[in-house]
C-alpha cells in the first residue's frame, strides 16, 4: 500500500509540475503522455534491477500510474467542468492581427514564436490573422482574415 500512496503523490506532483511548465515546451505530446512514458520506463528498470527489492513493487507502481492516468483522462472526458483544470484551455494570442502581450507573457511565448508558427502555416504577417489560438496541445492555430 505504501507504493500506491507514494505513486499517487508523485503522480499529482508531476501533473502540477507539467501544468506549470507550460504547453509550448511540450507541444509534440500531451505533457502527461510524455511523463507517463518516461516514468513507466524508469519504474520497469527499477523493478528489473531490484532497486525496490521486488518486481511486484515495480508492477504495482506501473499499474498505479497507469490507472491514475486513465482516471484523469476519463474524468476530463466525463466531466466538462474538470477539463479546464485537467487539460487547460485554449488561449487567444492574436486577435484581429494584434498580439495580446499579456497572454504571450503568461505562456512564456515570444512574438517570434508566434510569427514562426504563422510562417509555417503560410501566413506572412500576423496582421493577416484574425485569430491565433494557443491550443491545449501547445500548437498555435491561425484563422485568417477574410480578404
Write the layout of secondary structure elements.
Layout: H1 2-21, H2 31-48, H3 55-78, H4 83-86, E1 91-95, E2 98-99, H5 101-106, H6 111-120, E3 129-134, E4 140-144
Antiparallel strand pairs: 1-2, 1-3, 3-4
What does this structure look like?
It is a single chain. The chain has 147 residues and is of the alpha+beta class. Helix content is 56%, strand content 12%. It contains six helices and four strands; from the N terminus they run H-H-H-H-E-E-H-H-E-E. It has helices spanning 2-21, 31-48, 55-78, 83-86, 101-106, 111-120; strands spanning 91-95, 98-99, 129-134, 140-144. It has a four-stranded antiparallel sheet. Strand 1 (91-95) and strand 2 form a beta hairpin. Helix 1 packs across helix 3 (55-78) and helix 2 (31-48) packs antiparallel against helix 3 (55-78). The longest helix has 24 residues, at 55-78. It is elongated. The protein starts with a helix and ends with a strand. The model has no long low-confidence stretch (mean pLDDT 82).
What key attributes describe this structure?
alpha+beta; elongated; 147 residues
Overview in brief:
The protein is of the alpha+beta class and 147 residues long.
Q: In sequence order, what are the helices and strands, one letter per element? A: HHHHEEHHEE
Helix content: 55-70%
Largest sheet: 4 strands, antiparallel
Terminus-to-terminus distance: 63 Å
The largest beta-sheet arranges its strands as 2-1-3-4
Strand content: 5-15%
Query: From the helix content, strand content and strand pairing, which structural class follows?
Result: alpha+beta
Amino acid at each position: 500500500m505504501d507504493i500506491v500512496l507514494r505513486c499517487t503523490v508523485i503522480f499529482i506532483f508531476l501533473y502540477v509540475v507539467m501544468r506549470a511548465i507550460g504547453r509550448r515546451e511540450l507541444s509534440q505530446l500531451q505533457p502527461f503522455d510524455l511523463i507517463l512514458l518516461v516514468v513507466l520506463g524508469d519504474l520497469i528498470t527499477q523493478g528489473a534491477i531490484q532497486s525496490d527489492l521486488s518486481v511486484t513493487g515495480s508492477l504495482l507502481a506501473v499499474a498505479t500510474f497507469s490507472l491514475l492516468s486513465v482516471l484523469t483522462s476519463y474524468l476530463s472526458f466525463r466531466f466538462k467542468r474538470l477539463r479546464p483544470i485537467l487539460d487547460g484551455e485554449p488561449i487567444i494570442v492574436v486577435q484581429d492581427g494584434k498580439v495580446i502581450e499579456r497572454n504571450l507573457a503568461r505562456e512564456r511565448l515570444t512574438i517570434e514564436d508566434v510569427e514562426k508558427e504563422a510562417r509555417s502555416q503560410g501566413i506572412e504577417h500576423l496582421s493577416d490573422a484574425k485569430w491565433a489560438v494557443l491550443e491545449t496541445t501547445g500548437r498555435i492555430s491561425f484563422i485568417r482574415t477574410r480578404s
